[in-house]
Amino acid sequence: MKKFEFIEKPFMLDDDLSLAIVDKRVTKKMKNSLKNKNIEIIETVECKNVYESIKYHPDIAVCSLGDGNIVVEPTLYGEYKKLLDEFCFNIIKGETKLGSKYPSNIAYNTAIFGEYAIHNFNYTDKTILEYVAKNKLNMINVAQGYSKCSICIVDDNSIITSDAGIYKAVQNTGIDCLLIEEGHIDLFDMNHGFIGGCSGLISRSELAFFGDIRRHPSYSQIKNFVYSKEKDIAILSDEHLLDLGSIVPLATKRKEHADDR
Fold first, then answer.
1. pTM for the full predicted model
2. Fold for domain 4-255?
3. Residue 26 backbone zone (phi > 0: left; psi -120 to 50: alpha; other: beta)
4. Which of 50, 148, 158, 198 is deepest in the core (most CB within 10 A)?
């Protein structure tokens, strides 16, 4: 087994990221940037039940619950178990089989961070709902089913979104939310992608973007917001921003313990 420490809480990092799930279609430049940061990536399995643009998005078919627990869409369970077994993750078979049309394709696209869970809970997979209830997370119900796609997690109570409904829903919840201009992010054959899908934390102090975030018209506000949270911005390539279904962090490098020597 490789020496990794499981992420304790979903999307939250206490150290430098070492292992993550990433869309199989990640560009060569982006992949090399992650490699140069000593991040090992696990490329996603195709989810044939959903439409072309999101069929490899990790946040569509996979939901990390932290502590090595990962919920996977049932038709992909066997393939992800094979991919992740060597790392000793607990792969949990979800109950919801995804369908091709919205909202039958959103069951695992829940944004879980800190003490919060944001989703359209009418469609959330039962396994995830049980985790949310067990951990007494604050549930924020929104109309936007592509919740994780739409939410860039900055820290345990700070997010960025272009979705006005999400922005309104988190007011007076303790979450600090920056609302940015919609669009300006590619999503293959779709009109545009989302800020959550093109980003992810890669250390406790660094937020990475798939593409050049400086091209986004809201970059100035994004930069100031991220810096105000004592984090830096990592640009993974000089290409246009690309929604790849989030960087889903799984583990950091295992700290050396006295009994390891």
1. 0.95
2. L-arginine/glycine Amidinotransferase; Chain A (3.75.10)
3. beta
4. 148
